[in-house]
Amino acid sequence: MNRKPTAGWQTFNVFNVLFLTLLSLAMLLPFLNVLAQSFSSSEAIVTGKVLFFPVEFTSINYQYVFSDAAIWRSFGVTVYITIVGTLINLIATASLAYPVSRPEYAGRNGIVIMVLITMVFSAPLIPNFILMKNLHLTNSLWALLLPGAISAFNFFVMRSFFLQLPSELIDSGRMDGCSELRMIWSIVLPLSKPVMASLGIFYAVGHWNTYQSALYYINKPALWPLQVKLRQLIASEDISIDPNSSQFSGLAHMDPEGIKMATIIIATIPIILIYPFLQRHFVKGMMVGSVKS
Asked: Where in the cell is it found (predicted)?
């Protein structure tokens, strides 16, 4: 039986759509402004003519960024720690979450409690830095990969997913002679694509936006990730172009704002492009633990 929506429900829908539209615009419009400035001339940016569309369209800002070897090096560092770090995160998180989700593992409750404690109490910065220094991880990319190999929150999400796997499926695999590693590889992981994709996005975004850890533990500019390089570029008040460069002839004193905006776009676009390919798994993964049978 179809019921006619009440006046209160219709009013709620109107305000809900209006609120979500305004919220979406609040997130989208600043990005459009940055994108427009990255394609605008220095005169248009300085005079404040740029709003949401480029003024005096030019690609010189991107040409400058792409010609900077230091930015490409930082981009490569960020891509490396994002790919390698995400793989380490997923392997380490699954390696801990799966055993403690099985009832036959006797010490699982103690491990869960210890992981839970890390969500409430975290070590201060100075002890962490001393630990990294004593382990000889400072000025090394391992300082950005190993300390956060397992996120406590993501561990509990993955553990909740493994708890929902039918025990009969695991038992049938054992009866067929599968070893634990073979069962994980052939049965558990293929069924875990939604949660792996969801947590993979969380981990990848965290690695892509790595800033504080690199600032604390890495002093070599050659190992700086893109976010640290971007911060250095934004904080710099003197961005000039080699006057001897034929590629940028006549633009030795161009306004730095366009270059900064172009760098921000380059640092943002890649992680945005990845999401549509994982959206289906991401939505499924977000439902983990929300429905109990």
From this structure: Cell membrane
